């Protein structure tokens, strides 16, 4: 058994293995989104790679192609209030579990980007899995999952920007840019902000000692 595998290694066909990845884990606003994808043995996805290494235009091109060619794919979302309740790591696992359960075909094996496995309580079923460090650049199914998660999340943030104006959500996608932090300080957080995150939660104001005179 390898250190990063939940079960003893078993050989499965490519079409039975799902890659899983997330997008938006480090943001100050918006949900964390996970993608899960099973690719066929043969596919035509030119330039498939880690979503972070692709331009937005390239991701937009691949997004529909992945959904068309995939054996199965799914997306899972965990919202800011869930993140605040159970913390970002557990919310990421929850989103991953939802993505896997959303697929029309259940995989026989999961390959998770990163250095952690999805806990059973979040996955909700017994599927052998292993994590792959920097898997979004090594495993095509994980690369595809990362593109699905990132592109879907970007589309969602553009829509949320119209509902929560003034923060620039459609530009920085919820990340902690200088402009975003300044908007939070000026307007206060909205429903899409993660209130337990530093730079969002109100800092304790220093107590001013009352004068004795």
3D shape: globular
Overall structural class, as computed from helix and strand content, comes to: alpha/beta
Number of domains: 1
The total count of helices amounts to 7
Catalytic activity: Endonucleolytic cleavage to 5'-phosphomonoester
GO molecular function: manganese ion binding; RNA binding; RNA-DNA hybrid ribonuclease activity
Keywords: Cytoplasm, Endonuclease, Hydrolase, Manganese, Metal-binding, Nuclease
Main location: cytoplasm
Question: How are the secondary structure elements laid out?
Answer:
Layout lengths: L16 E7 L8 E7 L17 H14 L2 E7 L1 H7 L1 H15 L6 E5 L6 H4 L5 E4 L7 H24 L5 H4 L5 H10 L26
Parallel strand pairs: 1-4, 4-5
Antiparallel strand pairs: 1-2, 2-3
Please tell me about this protein's structure.
It comes from Pseudodesulfovibrio hydrargyri. It is found in: Cytoplasm. The protein has a single domain (14-187), classed as Nucleotidyltransferase, domain 5. The protein has 7 helices and 5 strands. With 213 residues, the protein is an alpha/beta fold. It has helices at 56-69, 80-86, 88-102, 120-123, 140-163, 169-172, 178-187, and strands at 17-23, 32-38, 72-78, 109-113, 129-132. The termini are far apart. The longest helix is centred in the last third of the chain and has 24 residues, at 140-163. Strand 1 (17-23) and strand 2 (32-38) form a beta hairpin. The protein is 37% helix and 14% strand. Residues 5-10 and 204-213 have low confidence and may be disordered. The protein has a 5-stranded mixed β-sheet.
């Amino acid at each position: 058994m390898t250190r990063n595998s939940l079960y003893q290694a078993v050989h499965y066909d490519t079409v039975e293995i799902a890659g899983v990845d997330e997008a938006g884990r480090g943001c100050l606003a918006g949900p964390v989104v996970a993608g899960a994808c099973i690719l066929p043995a043969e596919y035509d996805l030119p330039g498939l790679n880690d979503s972070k290494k692709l331009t937005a235009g390239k991701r937009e091109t691949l997004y529909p192609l992945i959904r068309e060619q995939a054996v199965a794919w799914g997306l899972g979302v965990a919202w800011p209030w869930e993140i605040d309740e159970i913390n970002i790591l557990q919310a990421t696992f929850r989103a991953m579990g939802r993505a896997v359960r959303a697929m029309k075909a259940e995989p026989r094996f999961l390959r998770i980007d990163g250095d952690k496995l999805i806990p059973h309580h979040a996955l909700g079923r017994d599927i052998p899995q292993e994590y792959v460090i920097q898997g979004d650049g090594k495993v095509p199914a994980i690369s595809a999952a990362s593109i699905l998660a990132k592109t879907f999340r970007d589309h969602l943030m553009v829509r949320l920007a119209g509902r929560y104006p003034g923060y620039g959500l459609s530009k920085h996608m919820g990340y902690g840019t200088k402009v975003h932090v300044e908007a939070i300080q000026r307007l206060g957080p909205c429903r899409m902000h993660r209130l337990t995150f530093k730079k969002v939660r109100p800092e304790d104001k220093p107590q001013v000692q009352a004068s004795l005179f």
